[in-house]
Write a structure and sequence with these properties.
2 copies of one chain form a homodimer. Chain A is α+β, with helices and mostly antiparallel strands. Chain A has one domain: Mth169, Chain: A. Helix content of chain A is about 35%, strand content about 40%. Chain A has a 3-stranded antiparallel sheet. The longest helix of chain A has 16 residues. At the A-B interface, helix 1, strand 2 and helix 2 of A face helix 1, strand 2 and helix 2 of B. Strand 2 of chain A pairs antiparallel with strand 2 of chain B.
């Protein structure tokens, strides 16, 4: 089953990678005020139900993929 | 205007970060076959129309955010 987990900084957290990206885009002439950078994980998980996949992926986010102090995450099932 | 650009490896390209993430998840006991990692950029762009925002973001992906050799990207307008 393919699951998509998106990990993004919580609002208000400092995002140096986003700031550098915004600066580079402005130097190229793009009218960009700000950029926030996040990560997407597309996971191929061996489970039998959507519920189990979502539960396990939530646990993966808490234990490895996201930083509980500064990240938010969203999870969705792509296909079964 | 907030625009979301998602940059992911084209199918078939080697993804060392994804492979390491999959290995770590398996070591934690998760039944994961494979992981692909991508990036999400949420861009605050100063433009007057959706069309202009999409056109500029497409150009940003080609010029800076994505590697044309190995990345695919998708763009969507989040709000105006």
């Amino acid at each position: 089953m393919k699951i998509r987990a998106e990990v993004r900084l919580k609002p208000g957290h400092f995002d140096p990678e986003g700031d550098v990206t915004a600066k580079s885009l402005r130097e190229l002439g793009f009218p960009v005020d700000a950029v926030k950078v996040g990560k997407v994980y597309v996971l191929d998980v061996k489970v039998n139900s959507k519920e189990e996949a979502l539960r396990l992926t939530e646990e993966m986010c808490r234990k490895l993929l996201a930083n509980p102090v500064k990240d938010d995450y969203t999870i969705e099932v792509l296909n079964t």
